[in-house]
Design goal:
Two copies of one chain form a homodimer. The relative contact order of chain A is 0.14. Chain A is globular and about 60 Å long. Chain A is of the alpha/beta class. Chain A has helices at 15-19, 29-42, 64-69, 86-95, 108-115, 119-135, 158-171, 187-199, 218-227, 255-264, 273-287, 294-311, and strands at 10-13, 46-51, 78-82, 99-105, 139-145, 175-179, 207-210, 232-235. Chain A has one domain (10-311): TIM Barrel, CATH 3.20.20. Chain A has an eight-stranded parallel β-barrel with strand order 1-2-3-4-5-6-7-8, surrounded by six helices. The first copy, chain A, is built from twelve helices and eight strands. The longest helix of chain A is centred in the last third of the chain and has 18 residues, at 294-311. Chains A and B meet through helix 8, helix 9, helix 10 and helix 12 of A and helix 8, helix 9, helix 10 and helix 12 of B.
């Protein structure tokens, strides 16, 4: 296996799952597959394609099995599914997925409100889910959300995150994802949390950052993560994933913005910005709304200018 | 005079000039003064209020004299005017302004297209303008634009920027402003350019950064500037200053986004985020369009939620 260069960065795409789950417009399975086809064509190698939560909870993702059944076969591409529990894991395995994600919250209050269980209960259940997934030979990504701040508890002790990360690693998780669920992290905090988690024994190459651009800090936080040694970053095409009821609200770190800045800084993402931008334009059309990614907007403006000069 | 703490950051506000100059909706003088009043109320101490270019060039700023005549008198607040030439300087002085800005481009081609003169000619003219301004006891801020990239020439040699900066300092400029006119800078480049300019002899506390968020990098670039020792950053409320014909296009670094991240990182801007956000909402209403700042959008969404819960 080819050893990745230290200048290789892996962008993990969450638009079909985290990006869509709050969208009011429910996309057809065909539209989702159209998006995924375009993401693959751009060179994206990790895509979180759906979630196996109870369909009544997230109607947008009720077609999980149909999406997975029709995924484009492409060498080197890994498709991931979010599994909230044992039942979700079984459904993912039944569909044939080989990569799954679990999630819990660094904040006790957020965990209880979001998952209706204490952190301890969630961790116990996830230890079993992760163990079973590993026994089946799956690859497991464990999200820890609200690492950089919680809407109920405010700042979260990085040592608490590190303890959870260790427990998840001991359970068998391959990758720990540090999530800024509400988009409140700042670059110094990102550096400090990564250092704490690494010092606790989680290898940097088993750690990923999942940033939201709610307050305009996603790129700055990714750059801080990069400087601290992280090489895997989550993003969503066109920055989808914000609150769809607030027109300008930013969502996940926009994949195109990350490609642009990382390539500009000399890192290799292996992704074609132009093709990724076309995927973002496809998604905005499918959702019939303006999406917040900055490079997405640059792309749309350039496309408009080109079509004007072509017709003029 | 009180020595500023190393944790004090100065945000220089450009919304009334750089923010408005490309807007299709021409604001009334009263609306501009309404904006400036609100910026002052928020605690902003440096505001670029207008430009003394020929009124036919920028109709939005044709009321320069009227704006300056009615500026709120507030202790410690410095009002700045952009002066393109000797005539502009005379008009600024006639109005009673004590702080002026000059501008030229680090790119020869951009300078010729934008100012219709060679860089050498511009520098010669500006040397005289700056000298005259200093002889009148004014404070002078010298913008160098396209420092981090030019739409015609691509990347610009940092040594060229440093040479121009030195000439402008020798002419008497108090502050050199490194401008990312088209929003193409990346954080490593910001660090490198600042180091080159500082090594050439321009003190860090006489250097400011003027970033645009076109590609989503403004906050990351400001953070890079901060780490490199810069303490003055330009911003425009609500991120105004993008292309008004491209609805989601980002403009200047959004002042609210800078306040949020800098205060979060332990720096003191002296500005009230809430009051600044109210100024941004006022501007969006006056321009009757959606503005791209991220914290601006967070503020609008929260205000909406509050008004719903009040009425519900």
């Amino acid at each position: 296996m080819k050893q990745p260069s230290p200048n290789t960065v892996n962008l993990y795409e969450v638009s079909p799952r985290d990006g869509l789950q709050n969208e009011a417009t429910v996309l057809s399975t065909e539209a989702k597959l159209g998006l995924i086809h375009r993401l693959v064509a751009a060179g994206i190698r990790d895509i979180e394609v759906t979630s196996f939560v109870r369909p009544s909870w997230v109607p947008q993702l009720a077609d999980a099995a149909q999406v997975v059944a029709s995924l484009p076969q492409a060498e080197g591409v890994r498709y991931w599914g979010l599994v909230p529990n044992q039942r979700g894991l079984e459904r993912a395995i039944d569909c044939g997925l080989r990569h799954v994600c679990t999630f819990l919250s660094a904040s006790e209050t957020h965990n209880q409100k979001n998952l209706n269980r204490t952190q301890r209960e969630t961790l116990a259940a996830q230890t079993k889910v992760i163990g079973d997934a590993k026994a089946e030979g799956l690859v497991v990504r464990a999200y820890i959300s609200t690492v950089f701040g919680c809407p109920y508890e405010g700042e979260i002790d990085a040592n608490q995150t590190a303890r959870l990360a260790l427990r998840l690693r001991e359970a068998g998780a391959d990758v720990i994802v540090l999530g800024d669920t509400v988009g409140v992290a700042n670059p110094d905090q990102v550096t400090a949390v990564i250092q704490t988690v690494a010092a606790a024994g989680i290898p940097l190459d088993c750690t990923a950052l999942h940033m939201h651009d709610t307050r305009g800090t996603a790129v700055a936080n990714v750059v801080a993560g990069l400087k601290a040694g992280i090489r895997t970053f989550d993003g969503a095409i066109a920055g989808v994933g914000g609150c769809p009821y607030a027109p300008g609200a930013a969502g996940n770190a926009a994949t195109e913005d990350l490609i642009n800045v990382l390539e500009d800084m000399g890192f290799d993402t292996g992704i074609c910005l132009e093709t990724a931008s076309a995927a973002g334009a496809f998604l905005a059309t499918a959702l019939d709304r303006s999406l917040p990614g900055r490079m997405h907007q640059v792309y749309l403006a350039q496309r408009e200018a080109n079509s004007e000069s072509c017709s003029g």
